[in-house]
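Table 4 source record.
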Amino acid sequence: MFKKEMSIKDRPDYFLFSVIILLLIIGIVMVYSSSYIWAEYKYADSLYFVKRQLLFAGVGVAGMFFFMYIPYSNWAKYSKIILLVCFILLLLVLIPGVGLVRGGAQSWIGVGAFSIQPSEFMKLGLIIFLSVYLSVNQKYITSFKKGFFPALILVFTSFGLIMLQPDLGTGMVLVLTCMIMIFVAGARISHFVGLAILGLVGFALLIISAPYRISRITAFLNPWEDPLGDGFQIIQSLYAIGPGGLMGVGLGNSLQKYFYLPEPQTDFIFAILGEELGFIGGSILLLLFVLLFWRGIRVAIEAPDAFGRFLALGIVSMLVVQVMINISVVIGLIPVTGITLPFLSYGGSSLTLTLCSVGILLNISKSSRV
């Protein structure tokens, strides 16, 4: 019997790469299908949103290849600088006249004809820094004072700045992603129990402090109590998914995108996909996400060092959390939050940062053990 030697491959995971490209293609098709009516009405150009999404996708794919061919170990060297820049951007967005207000949140910084969302950059920046911290201090993570608490301070400082915008959805993704990383690093369950109790109290205070969050909770519990107000969006989403049935009404044939479902190309794009492509189309999309998560976790497990393992885990966890929250909102399982569906929802910062993140994941896969 010959023992198979461990070797290091110098090629990315082509299966993972193929899944990413398929998701990107589906996203571009669905952005066009869900947005052309609204784009024609608002901008007299049915291709307005899809042209911009193609531009974002082009920048994102270029970023993906850039990150894929830069050794991931380099990001550990610059993790402090990356995190500092992300904090500066989060502070800049809060300055009146610099930060742009959209949908009640001051979450964007204008750059020419386009804008960036600093909280999206913070998600990746914090994952990189936390991966370095956990790889160096994993032996202390069971200690609340030496390991768990310093990581907690960093995470909730970032969360606090994001909540000043306010952007609860992005903040939730950031916190849950980091908690998964810290848990896998070996933190004590008792620490998480105490944190969960404080988190529930804090979450309740956040809801009470903003009337619109209370109305979202009320609308979630009974959207038909206010069908033309707070319950309107989730009702229209369910009206989209319901008629889709098994096969859907056909690509491009959605009725809900005719000014019923607000901004259908953004957070609720899965509802239009469900209406047009049905249960089968929705299931295929979910299968692609499952394959992405499976290969991503495999990359994390096979990474040659602790930093690579935590970095891959953080990127995969961020995508998992975001997909779960978005789809749960669309099908009415949780209250409405402003979370995009990775690879599908219209949006420059979200798509670009997602593609750059999976570029890092692909680079880690090049160094994984086989």
